[in-house]
């Protein structure tokens, strides 16, 4: 799965969690400033992203998600670790 596919899937998760239109979620979207999300919703997005990719993020990583790009970076990091452990 490449970066763009990851980004699109995360946008879908955000849209399902928040009822936002995925087209309204820019690549540089800040969850607080641009999408007007509260901390509970941001945590819910983190958990849902984790579930969607089946990566089992540590809880402290979820609290650091502030932007769409943070989410993409986290997924790529844990996908790489998962592939390295499997390979």
Structure description:
- By secondary structure, the protein is mainly α.
- It is built from four helices and no strands.
- Helix 1 (3-18) crosses helix 2.
- The longest helix has 19 residues, at 68-86.
- It is globular and about 40 Å long.
- The mean pLDDT is 91.
Order of helices and strands: HHHH
Q: For this structure, what is the CATH homologous superfamily?
A: ACP-like
Summing up helix and strand content along with how strands pair, one would put the structural category as mainly alpha
Major β-sheet, in short? none
CATH class: Mainly Alpha
At the third CATH level, what is the topology name? Non-ribosomal Peptide Synthetase Peptidyl Carrier Protein, Chain A
Spatial gap, N to C terminus: 16 Å
Could you say what the CATH architecture is?
Orthogonal Bundle
Number of helical elements:
4
Q: Give the radius of gyration.
A: 12 Å
Report low-confidence residues grouped into runs of 5 or more. none
Number of strands: 0
Counted up, domains total 1
Mean pLDDT: 91
Task: Kindly estimate the percentage of residues that lie in beta strands according to DSSP.
Answer: under 5%
Residues in helix, %: 55-70%
Q: Which word captures the global form? A: globular
